[in-house]
Amino acid sequence: MKKILLSMLVALFAISMQAETQQIAANAFGTTKMANCSYENGTFSWSSSSSNGMTLFTGLKGNVDLSNYKYLVIKTTEKTGNFRVIVYCDNNSSTNSFVGTYDTDNVKIDLTDIELTAPEGSGPYTYANINKIYIAGSGASGSLKVAEADVYLETADTEYETLECTGFTKVSGNGNCSYDTATKTFAWTAKSANTMQIFEFNAGDLSKYQTLSFTTSDLVNEDASSSLPYRVLFMTGSTTTKTVSFSTAGDKTVTLSEQMDETTIAGITSIRFAGNSAAGSVVIDPASIILKGEKETAIDTVTTDNGQQTTVNTGARAVIVNGKVVIKKGDKQYNVAGQQF
User: Fold this and answer.
1) Is pTM, for the whole model, over 0.85?
2) Region 102-118: what's the mean pLDDT?
3) Secondary structure, 3-state, the chain
């Protein structure tokens, strides 16, 4: 197991950690069945101890980056026998590897732990070589219930830092707006001088986040000439660096990299919410306003599998992406093992 020696960055705000997973559904569920098995009405059954496999996935190599997926999940019920999982590497049906026999209903297989058999002289296989995945019976006969929706590949938890807005703060010289904490309503009475602050930080702090999201409802626009009645402002000091305007209420997400380059994002010192029409109002709960980014740590050294340490130059950082530690420096990204900076 790779070991990372990390020193945590000092947080200027209270942050929370969230974990998310992504899934990819079985793309070939039941499309190929060997001679001694069948799939009918949600039941997989077999009548011999051999030639009893059914496809779950195929065409993975070259089409799916398995390095982004850590687990194979199979959920079954009503088993009258155990089942096996078999994977085939590359496009060669003879290069198969037996993964295991399972007697539980909910199986979560760590793909990185699979020992794969490579043809002689071809070099070692990793799980990136996996092309097909089969479910197969174990024993002379048996059956089980399994639905297509209950078979999928899943990422490891991707860890994120989130920063939540704690409220709307008045900005000097912006008297044409207000926020009612009881009704959670932001209102404005003029097209200018109508901003309130929702985040403030030091230059560079915004760089750790990738998205700004929030939810609005009950939008009232009293200015028919404006089709974009409210907006979010990204500020550098007292200067508006970037404006993102909205036409409707609902769930909104602003991807920072789509709006500004890295240097501009690093210079942002506050974010404001504002009207963009002559008058109007919209309901928005501060708790719904969230900055979200990859969990980040400063990094000093990396210890690889062979025990060698690499000293990381100033400016590098490590983030957790799909359960893997990835080192980033500027616009370049490195895997941990065997990389020099």
Assistant:
1) no
2) 84
3) CCEEEEECCCCCCCCEEEEECCEEECCCCCCCECCCEEEECCEEEECCCCCCEEEEECCCCCCCCHHHCCEEEEEEECCCCCEEEEEEECCCCCCEEEEEEECCCEEEEEHHHCCCCCCCCCCCCCHHHEEEEEEEECCCCEEEEEEEEEEEEECCCEEEEEEECCCCEECCCCCCEEEECCCCEEEECCCCCCEEEEEECCCCHHHHCCEEEEEEEEEEECCCCCCCCEEEEEEECCEEEEEEEECCCEEEEEEHHHHCCHHHHHHCCEEEEEECCCCEEEEECHHHCEEEEECEEEEEEEECCCCCEEECCCCEEEEEECCEEEEEECCEEEECCCCCC
